[in-house]
Amino acid sequence: MTDLMKFALRRVGQSVAVVWGIITLVFLLRFLTPIDPATLVAPDDATPALIEQIRQDLGLTDPIIVQYFRYLSEVARGDLGFSYGSGVHVNELIVNALPATLELAFASLIFAVIFSIPLGVLSAKRRGTNTDATTNIISLGGLSTPNFWLGIMLILLVPVQLGVLPTGGRVAPTESLLEWTKHMILPTVALGTYFMALLFRMTRNNVIEELNKEYVRAARAKGLPENIITVRYVLQNSMAPVITVAGLQLGLLIGGSVVVEAVFNWPGLGSLFIQALNTADWPIMQGILIVVGIGYVSINILVDILNAKLNPQVNLS
């Protein structure tokens, strides 16, 4: 078994403990709310006896340790329970909402990568110039601007004032690719601007660090073209930390799109979570938190393995 395989198996083992911790924390959060789930399920004219019967049917009268192990068993089987409000299986609700969230998260990450890396290299190559100052000011603005405020401002400016692009909602790409693109632009920019600024600063700092190393001066002394030095050597050696952060940001984009989805009426996990929060529908909230947590842990594992594969200097022990 190779060192990389051992490293991957060790990371998977560690992640199992992390996922168990996430499930445990999510389970305990339900007991912090004063709302009785039985009252949410019961009809408005339910008698106390009926509410007590519903409480027993839901297993809420069992000791907490019994409820905990029952919940662990259900989650291990992939059963996230039923919505208190609609009675629909939580798995079904999440499966229906997840594609929209993944779509927005990947689009935002691609947007961030496409703009951040070229601008980071350009800024590093022209360090101290007006170009460098301008890109740094833009990145500072991106890091300082809350994505929900940016989303609201984009809606007020582009659809309301200019009459261009829709204010929100989602159209599936299979229905109309043009309409899908129009609906994607504003939420992608709102969600991806912060991460674009973050990746830009990382790329710029890493490229500046690599440009000051001996091998770059040696390559220039040998007469290699500047473009080859930048792309083949400097950029390649600068990308490992950027790839690591970009991968981790994907997990944050999936979990952090709640407010942006609400602003743009995007039918993803964020909107579903807010709806469940408004009605205290704990099975939905618990299911979403578990899915997002497992997704973030899985992405973390893949990023660590990819980083170990690309960067021989990573300590696999």
Automatic annotation (TrEMBL):
Keywords for the protein's UniProt record, in alphabetical order: Cell membrane, Membrane, Transmembrane, Transmembrane helix, Transport
GO CC terms: plasma membrane
Entry-linked Gene3D superfamilies: MetI-like (1.10.3720.10)
UniProt-listed SUPFAM superfamilies: MetI-like
Locations listed in the record: Cell membrane
Membrane-spanning intervals of the chain: 12-32, 104-124, 136-160, 180-200, 242-264, 284-303
Keyword tRNA-binding: no
InterPro entries in the record: BPD_transp_1_N, MetI-like, MetI-like_sf
Lineage top rank: taxon: Archaea
GO biological process, one term: transmembrane transport
Membrane topology: Multi-pass membrane protein
Primary localisation category: membrane
Pfam families in the cross-refs: BPD_transp_1 (PF00528), BPD_transp_1_N (PF19300)
The ABC transmembrane type-1 domain, residue ranges: 98-307
Similarity remark: Belongs to the binding-protein-dependent transport system permease family.
PANTHER family found in the cross-reference section: DIPEPTIDE TRANSPORT SYSTEM PERMEASE PROTEIN DPPB-RELATED
Protein name in the entry: ABC transporter permease
Annotated organism of origin: Natronomonas salsuginis
